[in-house]
Amino acid sequence: MKYVLSVLLLTITIGFSQSNPQELSFDTKYYNAVDKWIAFPKKATDTSYIFGFIYLDDTAGFTFNYESKFIETDSGLKKLPRKIEAGLKSRLVETTTDVAVLSDSQLTQLELPKFPEWLSVYKADSTKVSYLKNIGYHYNHVGANNLALNPLKKAYVLDPHYAGLEFELAYAYNALHDFNQAILILQEAIKNDPNNFLFYRELGFSLKNIGQNENAEKIYKKGINLTDDKFQKSEMAINMAQSYYLEKNLKKFKEWAVITRKFTENDSRFDQFLKIWEKELKIN
């Protein structure tokens, strides 16, 4: 059974004033420290460091499992007695401060195994498509698209049309500017599910970024017609307007500016973009 999420009263989601000893380097994003023992930087007034293990729960996301605290001594790191018996966990978020990944030598000093025994609970389903897709989603969600690719590609081999998988994989490819790979994924996705507007949204983005504006325009129009979500409609429209702005194609830019404004409010972020571009293009 997985641990119950407990309230962890640790100030780990803000930046600290850091004491940065030579042995500890607080320069790693939490999503780059998955399956690692890590330490958080301490406040200037503290004498000890909070440490524990970061893992990725496929349903709940990036998680810190609190272990204890340690201090620095002349002979190395010394683990302090744990004062809390129950396992304490904290979900990691965008504002989580950078961490220090503990080296093998430091793990030895702290008498820690390479991996905690309980980690296997969270790896039990690691070969399943659902697990792999979720892991990819969590990496995509924090912008670590390069780390999302491997689990998503594994899942795609097993079941390419698994719900949500093709979108996540194409999204990762687009974010990494591998637009041709995204196009291949999305073309197959649309054959299987021609009414999913998200596929058209991503495909339009891929096509416009390889200079195929006419094809992107056709795809975006299909996507706009497939959803009732005004924000999604306006996002697809503004992307197309931007392409024609960059081309200095006044006729097509005006057309897509009108479409964008059908779905977004005056002085919204997208409307402000249009006004800036119109001024640069000298459109009254």
TrEMBL record:
Domain of life: Bacteria
The UniProt record lists the keyword Membrane: no
InterPro entries referenced in this protein's UniProt entry, alphabetically: TPR-like_helical_dom_sf (IPR011990), TPR_rpt (IPR019734)
Pfam families documented for this protein: TPR_17
Keywords carried by this UniProt record: TPR repeat
Coiled coil residues, start to end: none
Membrane spanning residue stretches: none
Spans of repeat TPR: 163-196
Listed name of the protein: Tetratricopeptide repeat protein
Lineage per the UniProt record: Bacteria, Pseudomonadati, Bacteroidota, Flavobacteriia, Flavobacteriales
